[in-house]
Each structure stands twice: as C-alpha cells, then as structure tokens.
Amino acid sequence: MFCCLRVVRRLCLEKILLQCIIQSRTLSGADAIHALKPFYFAVHPDFFGQHPKERAVNENSLKRLNGYLENLQKPGFHSFKPTQLTFYVREREPNSSSVQESFSTSGFRAVSFTLHTRDLLSTVLDILNSCSLSTEHIQSLSVNSQPHKEAKRALNRPIKWDKTYYSFTGFKDPEEELDQAQRVETTLTSWLDDNEASAVVKLKKSLPLRKELERLKFELSHQLQLSDIRWQRSWGIAHRCSQLHSLGRLVQQRPEVLKNVKGHTVVFTERSGMSAAGHVMLGTMDVHHHWTKIFERLPNYYKLQERLLFLEDRISQLLGGIQVIYVEELQPLLTLEEYYDTLDSFYNKLLDSRLPFHPQSLRGLQMILESDRYTPSLHEFGHFTIPTVCDPATLRWFIIAKAQEARENLKRREEMMITEKELIDTSAEKFSLDRLYKEPSVTSAQMIDCCKRLLEESLPYLQGMHLCISHFYSVLQDGDLCIPWNWKS
After folding, report:
1. Residue 277 lies in a domain
2. Ranges for the DUF4461 domain (predicted)?
C-alpha cells in the first residue's frame, strides 16, 4: 500500500512541476486584453450599427465573456462553469494594412464555442482559434512575460492531481465533473437554480436607483412636455440616471433652448441629431454644448422632415401606391440626413427605371428600405424589406409575386400583436413578475412560443423578478434575468 502511495506521490510531483513550467508562461490580464485585440475588432458591437440583432447578440456575449475573464483573474476562484458563447464575427478583408482595417463591414458569420478553460492563456487561444483568428502574436506575449513572477503565482493555484490519485482515493475528479457538465444541456430550471440567488441580490441593490430613474424620467418628461424618454442600448440603471441628471442640469442652465423639444421623444444613444423616426438623439459621449446645438437646430430638422415625407410619397406613387415606412425596432438607427440620402438615391433609381406598376395596385402594402441587403424579402408582419441596390426588374417581380402573401401577413400582424400582449400579461401575472419584456431582436412569433411554454411550467423563482426574453442566458448588472426564447425544459 505504501509503495502505491509513493508511486502516486512521484507521479503527482512530476505533474505539478510540469504544470508550473506551463503556467509560468500564463498571460497577465493586460496581456490577455492585448492578445484579444483582433477578436474585439472583429466582434465589437459598434461595428454592427446596421445590424441591430447581431449587435445585441455580441453585446450580450461580450458581457458574459468579460465576466468569465474577470473570474479567471480572481485569486482562489475555483467554480468554473462551462460558458457557451455566440458571436457574429466580421469577415476579414484580403488586403489590409492594420488590424482595425482588416475587417469588412458588409459580411459576417456566426461562431459558437464553449469556454471551460481555467487560465487566461488557454482561454485566449480558444477564443482566437474558434473565430479563425491568428494566434502568432500570443507566443511573443507569453515569452516576454515574467516567468519567475508567474511561476510563483502558479504555485498558489489549486493542485491538479494525477488520475490515479482519484481512482485510489475515491475523491471526485473535477475535470470529469466539468466534462459531464458540458455534456448536459442547460435547462431553464437548472439555470434558474444556479442564478436566481445572485439575481435577487443585484435586483435588491438596484431598487433605490430604479425609483430614482422613474422619478427623474417623470419630472423631465413633465417639465419639457416630452412624449417619451428612451435608451437605444441596454445601459445599466446607474448609467441611465447619470444621463438624466446631465439633461436636468442643461434644463437649469439653458431652459430657453429646450422649448423646441416639446412633444418629441428623446433617445439617449451614441450620437446626437434627429433620428429617421423623428426622435431627438442625445449622444451619451457628447457634452452639453453638442446637445444645445441639436436643440437649436430642431426647426431646420422640421424642414428636412417635410422633404423626406415628400420623397416617401413620390416613391409610393412610382411603386403602385405601396407605403414607405421606417420601423425603428427592426431597422438600424439612422439620422434624418442619412435616411433622406437613402430615399433620394432609391427615388432617382426608380425614376430611371420607370417600372410599369398600375397606379394604386399595391395600395395597403408596406415596405422598408435597407442599404446593407442585396435581395428583397417579406417580413412576418407583412412589410417588404427592399435593398436600395436591388435590381428594378427583380424588385417588380418579387413584389408582384409576394403581394397576396404580404396582405395575409398584414392581417395576421394585428392578431399576433394582440396575442403576444395577452400572453405577456398572463405570464407576468402567473409568475408575479415585476416586469416581463423582450429584446428587439426577438420576433413576436418567438415571444408567443416562449410565453406559451412558460405558462406550462411552475417557476416560483421568478416572483418579483424582471425577466427579459433574449437569445441567451445571463444575469444583467441590475438583476434582470435573461433567458433564450427557445429555452429547454
């Protein structure tokens, strides 16, 4: 028996020494960020402004990835659960002079991978390899790191015993448990079991700020006589309060410039101006001077709006009476100027082609214009999505061929929206949810399917919670629970 123990001890010591050598080349936190620079350029949400669905997916996945990387750097943190991530990765351009310029803005692909590594170096390599990005720069980073410092840190890490140790002692092998966890698909109840407690803590912590946000929003809306105050991105409650405080200070300092905003919707976003939907956009990175200029220019925007409406009407006449609309939830956030240029370009193209549509033959149908697509499509809500670069002959054939289906979809849209609202209200009441909502990228059909299946479940964990229907599992910084619409039971 003692002989066996000596063999096990020798094997374990050899394993530990080998681990120390490997871990002596582990990346630091700063090195990891630098090593992932090509990855961040490929997936950063700011490069997906024309693609709201893909942008939302990448924002969500980056939050979860950053949490995973932070946990890896916490001393004594042992509980690593496999984390499945999906990113939309921009395609690389063949001829490029820099990392940032090497990615295209027109093409991207979906990449999914599962992280289960326990050190930064392995994690970084897994991410880059999964996205088919170069790892050549990693070698120089790890060689240039401080071996003695990292080796000392490695000795403080948990001991990784040889397999014979677990078979001899009967203890559980953490690697085997990790493999088993990977093979087991995440279910809604199991995920809620693991995350409900942390969500409750975050939610309770955010309650005072939530009340403050509602107070500020109500006071500013009443004072400025606004239709609404919104946010383009899912910023945290503290961030939103800060933005409202900033607007409140401007109201006190320059009340005269804000008289033009009466009746408008204010949207906090990444740039200032007026949106294609006619909302006043306030860039969160801009100072009061920029906001003031936007408020002063509002009368000029009204004139541009009139010209834009005229263009929409002219396009409608050329296309048999089909209505040109802008759907804020489904289209990229465009400024009024950008949307006007898009309409103007499309209108001139139609004038040159002179499509033979019978007047008012398509009355009652709707279409939206998009500059980043190449083929026309029909949405589940009944409107056509038309690329600005679409060949006129192809456009005419597609609209005529799909006109009847579009009319049927438009009829179902009202029914679907009513059904969706009823199911949201019923689900929120059954589970005593404080709030039930969905991300813009989740369709009505997906939301309806999700709510119907939720109502068949018994989920006491959800009482008093904020539940967001999304594409992935996550707990937001203010305690909102996010679950995928197609969750597994």
Report:
1. no
2. 186-488
Containing structural domain, residue 56: 29-91+105-138
Which strand ranges, in their side-by-side order, compose the sheet holding 466-470?
Answer: 435-438, 466-470, 481-484, 474-475
- The reply to whether 346 falls in a domain is no
Backbone angles phi, psi at 127, to 5 degrees: -65, -50
Rounded Cα–Cα distance for residues 233 and 217 (Å): 17
Gap between the Cα atoms of 291 and 305, Å rounded: 20
Q: Tally the domains of the chain.
A: 1
- Between 391 and 82, the more confident residue is 391
Q: What is the pLDDT of residues 113-162, one digit of tens each?
A: 888 777 888 888 888 888 888 777 776 554 444 444 444 444 444 556 66
SS3 271: coil
- Please tell me the distance from the alpha carbon of residue 199 to that of residue 464, in angstroms, as a whole number: 11
Q: What is the pLDDT of residues 194-208, one digit of tens each?
A: 899 999 999 999 999
Do 312 and 324 touch, CB atoms closer than 8 A?
A: yes
Distances (CA, A) of 398 to 319, 320, 354, 385, 391: 12, 14, 16, 11, 11
Under DSSP, is residue 126 helix (H, G, I), strand (E, B) or coil? helix
DSSP state of 261: G
Residue 309 lies in a domain: no
Residue 378 domain-assigned? Answer: no
Closest Cα to residue 337, out of 388, 372, 373, 301? 301
**348: three-class secondary structure by DSSP:** helix
